[in-house]
# Entry
Amino acid sequence: MKLQHDTDINVDAVRDWTVTDEGWLQIDIPLRRAGILSYDTNKGDAFSAKEYLSEDELFNADSMKTLIGKPVALTPHPKGGKVNAKNFRALSVGTVIDAFRRGDDLVARSLVQDESAIKLILNDKSLRGASAGYQCDSKPKVTGSSKWGDYDTVQKGIKYNHFIICRNPRNGSARFNLDEIMTKEVNVDELQEQVTTLTKSRDDLQKQVGTLNGELLAANKKIVNLDSLNTESYERGLKDGETRHLLNEHAKTLGINVDSLDPKLVKIAVIKKANPEMNTDSLDEAQIDTALQMAMSIKPAKSFPQNPRRQQVNNDGDNSADTDGHSSYLKNIFGGGNAN
# Structure
């Protein structure tokens, strides 16, 4: 079957589709258009004819209702041309849930519910065609002419049994696309409003970026300053520690116990050792440091321990003959004393 139209068919027409909460694939699939359906035994058809499908017949309400609830199958059409109770379980992958007119197309809103079929349709981009399975109450032999060409048969009383999703539909317009959203009529005013809004958003973002860059530079300066301050504090701490160590060592040489004294009291004790008469009560920190420098410049005097002097003995008053040196001297010189 082939539809003959005055204008070319866009086989890549974009249609609606979605995945439901249940994971089913819902697709709006165009099935048929009014026109001339050509059959030719030379091309493998069972008969030769040019059947006329009018718009009135295609969009007849009773006819479209017969499509709702009918099964969706994958290629090919079943043997005998019908899906029935015997082959339904093997062939059906979904259901038609609505049928309506969209422009020149009869559209079947279809729900593909079989998991394997959904995966196959999503992954195989060649499965984007459809073909309706139907029968007519009558096909009277009537010759005539339409805007699509001459015909020799007319379709009457169409009743649908199923439709299949296939690769190469005979009806070139019966195609759907799962890769894009459905096109809409372009509203220039809406587009201009969107452009204005996006432009303003871009300008606002650029201002924010400029502000953030300024804040980032200021933060970097603070980090650099903090690093400098930390370095200075570290070096000052080292210097203060070294100064305190030297002060404590100097105080120890002066016999000052620094264990229980804070640095200021150690300074005052060193000053007092060098200048006992100095009144340190009225000195401020700077004056104490100055006095300390002067005190520490004076080296403590070395001590020279001396042995105690030998005590002198005067024996002149001692009457003992053994200890009277003078008497002994006289005896030895003059023979005085007890000498006979």
